Amino acid sequence: MQSAVEVKGLTRVFEPKKKKEGKSVTALNKVDLRIARGELFGLLGPNGAGKTTLLKILSTLLLPTAGKAFVAGFDVEKDFTEVRKRINMVSGGEISGYGLLTVKENLWMFTQFYGMKSSVAKQRIDEMLAQFGLADKKDEKVRTLSTGQRQKMNVIRGFVTDPEIIFLDEPTLGLDVNASRVIREFIVDWVQAKDNRTVLLTTHYMMEADQLCDRIAIIDDGRILACDTPENLKKLVKMNRTLKLDVTSLKDTSKFGSLTGVEQFTFQDDAEKDQTHLKFILTDDSAVTEIISEVQSKGARILSLQKTEPTLEDVFIKMVGKGFE
Amino acid sequence: MTDTWLVTNLRAIRGRAYPRVIGSKRELSWLFFDITLPLLTVSAYAYIYKYIQAPDEFVGFVILGGAMTAFWLNILWMMASQLYWEKEIGNLQLYLIAPISRMSILAGMAVGGLFMTAIRASATMVIGVLLFGIVLSFAQPVMLILIFVVTMISLYGMGMMFASLYLLLGREAYHLSNLLTEPVYLASGLYFPVKALGFWAAAGASIIPITLGLDALRQLFYPGSGAEYGFLSVNTELAILAVLCVAFLWLSKYSLDYMEKLGKTTGRLTLRWQ
Ligand SMILES: Nc1ncnc2c1ncn2[C@@H]1O[C@H](COP(=O)(O)OP(=O)(O)OP(=O)(O)O)[C@@H](O)[C@H]1O
Ligand SMILES: [Mg+2]
User: What pTM does this model have?
Assistant: First the structure.
């Protein structure tokens, strides 16, 4: 099956408004990317990384300076009409539509730009409003909505036309936990409901990328630094899983270092509290059970246990050289 | 999705016209401003004409002119800056990613604006006619409708062209709208027969579709007045208006395509505050 998105050597340079004044910005630098049909794909990157620029090119709003981009197999530069029939886009903080229209009228208006039959559109809008808990707002003016309600409406606007591929530019930007969760759950359910649905989203939220995405590309300064599943990305960081244990005083620690799955073992006796602190660096999670039974077989009791794993944030910091401010 | 291109685009036009149409129903404050205020201006001229004992036609001329003013103001202050505002709100990029002709969006705005303004203009007409006891002739209804339709298409074609150009000018564009308000009242003879300006000035003003449209409507509503006050014959004016119609529609499509291409190349079409 042909890819949902295919990008080859994609470069976008913005020239300054007036020549001589300012210098040109390379927002995308020879980007290669392939997103399969059915994927929920995330673009993770700091401010100014080029995420929005990539989405604009894919949604036919912007031309590449060099390279090629295909959406649903169509060239975004030449076959833009075919691309447009198959996509939609939602951005965080969007204030689209007309304030004096009601929520339902506003959504209906946007379906008309996709040539949807009114009766079909209205029915689908009602269903989706109910799904997002906005059914009671459907006859309210758009301008009376809160930020979260408004963004839910924007998300409905994007999905109601049943696109094959949807671009979401920071869809949960500035929303509270609840509103974000409703939107995230909707996105995951939507992709899974049918084979042919693809999502490309950008985000600043590590958790969002980690929980939602099948694959993630980390982008910085117009370049893709890594692209893989969240699990595989985490394996890239050398900072392994660590296990810290506080146990009642333990005399014999000779065996811990040689347990399978333990890469490194250190310990420290705390005579004052009559405790021993154990620290393991693990290559394999299965070592945890063996460590615990070893502690117990020596007659010691576990007082506290702490396990840490590399997060996507660690991956990001390692790749980009800095975290999010 | 077996609907044809035409059906899709007709739906898009209806969709974009909708907020205008419904908007005029929801915000009734315009009733006062957009009907009463133009009537005051028109009445002032009407009383002057009565006072100086100008021919009876003149009061009718000025009321027709007042009605047409509404369309010109709609073009200048709404149509022209519309795309710019759509860009600022973020609607423009949603229109641009939709699988429809860009002209449908502009056409939708035009239809909505035309509908809304037609109500105001008719109100001005009806009240003016009743107030001043004017008698208009409907002897040539087909020609009346034809002239009106062609005038409106070319006028709103011009508005669609302005909409694209204003996108280029950005926030500075309102200066241009200011510049084009009063002088056009003068040039297109909204309050007097344009013939009074002399042939060349009137010919120059004819680039604005309301000039000839208004002149023709006056001749039709007052049969026989053409010889003395008409600029060109009604038939000639209809022919010129038809040419303007095609020209402005073509120019608006051309400038819109140009703007979109420029926007895709420079990346400025979808940015706010530019
Ligand atoms: N239309 C434009 N004209 C000039 N420069 C631009 C334009 N659009 C983007 N840029 C520049 O290109 C770079 C990438 O911008 P882009 O908006 O793609 O970043 P982003 O990853 O979406 O950032 P953010 O997380 O802040 O949204 C930035 O340096 C930005 O200033
Ligand atoms: Mg962005």
Answer: 0.87
